[in-house]
Amino acid sequence: MTAPVLGRDFRLLWSAAVSSRFGDSLRTPALALLAATLTRDPRAIAAVTVAGQLPPLLLGLLGGAYADRWDRRRTMAAVDGLRAGVVAALAVLVATGRAGVAALAAAALLLATLGTVFDAASFAVLPSLVAPAALPTANGRLQAGTAVAGGFLGAPLAGVLFALSAALPFTLDALTFAAAALLTLSLPPARVPRSCSCGGDKPAGDRQKVNHNCKIGGRSGGVWREAWEGVRWVRRDRVLWGITLLTAGSNLAISGLMAVLVLYALEVLRVPAAGYGLFAAGAVVGGLVGALAAGRLAGRFGTVPALRGVLAVQTLALTGFALARHPLPGGLALACFAAGTTIWNSLWASYGQRQVPAELLGRVGAAQRVVGRASAPIGAAVVGFAGQAYGVAPVGWAAAAIFAVVTVGAWRTLRAAAPEPTAAPPTPVGTAGRPALRPRR
User: Fold this and answer.
1) Phi, psi at residue 172, to the nearest 5°?
2) Which position has the higher pLDDT, 426 or 244?
3) Fold for the domain defined by 7-185
4) Right CATH number for 237-413 from 1.20.1250.20, 3.40.640.10, 1.10.150.130, 1.10.287.770?
5) Where is this region: Disordered (predicted)?
6) How far apart are CA 298 and CA 135, in angstroms?
7) Report field, pTM of the whole predicted structure over 0.90
8) How far apart are CA 141 and CA 13, in angstroms?
9) Is 424 left (phi over 0), alpha (psi -120 to 50) or beta?
10) I need a labelling partner for 71 at 20 to 30 A (CA). Which of 193, 209, 429, 431 fits?
């Protein structure tokens, strides 16, 4: 299968995403290191982490609504510009010795809040830049680029830069946000398509039957009402709803495993402390391989069958991980599992981007992310308490069991899917949007 040509506009978006991810991978560990130098109170350090985790869950739906209201290209550029300002201000506070835990928490909160709008807009803008058949490959390339920027470049460099100067990682992060904003502004205008104000939560084929005045982005009275249109759309589409619930189930296991991964590696797999970085890098390599393979798998098997198959392979990988008692087989199993995660992320995004009308993409993508991520804090909290009581060894088996249930659910629910698209030019940005969907079964 010949890889699709993605074009200049995709390369600009890819460059912006990679630049931003590189900055994130510098800032995130630097925030943790800085918090640890300011206080040893676990509650204060945890507050910084929680401040960055709450906005996607509490405000994610609003971010999707605004992404569907505004020009998505300008929205992404404006958000990155604001994030550059926030991080630059934090860098000044750090450099002058005036950064406290409250300032770190406030910065994490602001950045995560702005990120909800950016994530929704970037999810919605991609289908206007590449052909529908190329979406799995495009999403995979984005996953691969950000994995390299974050896992291989930014994360190892963050500690070195912080040791040189505590303000340096934040300064570079601000510059990467500014660069991403300029790259995004080079994209063609991305005007939100028109849709009927009373049909925003119906499949496109049904909306065409409604003879009412239309408004930009389905604005039917209040931003929260618009935001809930995305939830209603996902809930009414059996395949999208199934993918969303399966993502939530998967994240329950993934977040629990990641919460104690370092302890599991050291105590169960007997990874030497000095070798943990290499062990973790294996997962990054696996994720990169999976991201690059996503498009080929979708082209050969179809997006939905590939999603079901990936969950089955991940279940086997987690079973091997639970059985392993040595760093090498454990690391290989974890790398295989990570490959499946990036494939899943690429393919579920591609499916939604193809099937959802352009005017609802921001809200539907936000709804899927909010529901899919809601289980993550639960998984981490449960594993934390269970690990304290019973040790971390059972965590591998618990994660494998959850994925087995998710896999069975996938084979039962992911059946009725829309036909795979054929290669065709992308819908021009600023037109009336994607072709109409057939009514949901």
Assistant:
1) -65, -35
2) 244
3) Growth Hormone; Chain: A; (1.20.1250)
4) 1.20.1250.20
5) 419-441
6) 10
7) no
8) 11
9) beta
10) 209
